[in-house]
Design goal:
Elements: H1 5-17, E1 22-26, H2 32-38, E2 47-52, H3 56-63, H4 67-73, H5 78-92, E3 96-102, E4 117-124, E5 127-134, H6 139-160
Parallel strand pairs: 1-2, 1-3
Antiparallel strand pairs: 3-4, 4-5
């Protein structure tokens, strides 16, 4: 894992000190964010679970993503990421959630959404935001950059609230 352990420990400490919980909705990372967090022992007090929703049907059925949003915006969009974040937060009853949907490649890219396009959303009490990022490299690198980015961004958000 390329994310420095210090940032991950900062996230765990921040959530634990505030007695907050988090859950993830992951698509293109296939559970890598969840795996990264759960490599740390004793995180069950802050991490309640995740939904790996790789298909559109799973996004709809498990996370409540709207079909019309998927049709209009595509699965890799900030709107879908936001709905995924809200859906997993609702399903797992967490304080915070992170959702990641993207195109890790090597296929699946389009001129408007090339390989490496990743949409990330964070939802929490009175907070919702999403971002579209473009990462480069092979599939593994794009997945890892998505995980690293999500951990850093959630740390930043928690520092401000």
């Amino acid at each position: 894992m390329s994310l420095n352990n210090e940032k991950l420990q900062e996230l765990i400490r921040s959530l634990r000190d505030r007695k907050l919980t988090v859950g993830f909705a992951e698509s293109c990372t296939g559970g890598a964010l969840s795996a990264f967090l759960t490599e740390q022992p004793g995180v069950s007090d802050i991490f309640l679970g995740s939904v790996v929703s790789y298909s559109n049907e799973a996004k709809v059925d498990l996370l409540g993503v709207r079909r019309d949003t998927l049709m209009q915006e595509g699965a890799v969009s900030e709107k879908v990421a936001r709905q995924m974040a809200h859906g997993v937060r609702r399903q797992l009853k967490t304080d915070w959630s992170v959702a990641i949907t993207g195109i890790a490649g090597p296929t699946g890219g389009t001129p408007t959404k090339p390989v490496g396009t990743v949409c990330i959303a964070i939802a929490g009490p009175g907070f919702e935001d999403s971002r579209k990022e473009f990462f480069s490299g092979d599939r593994k690198a794009i997945q890892q950059m998505s995980v690293d980015y999500s951990v850093r961004w959630l740390c930043e958000v928690l520092d401000k609230v």
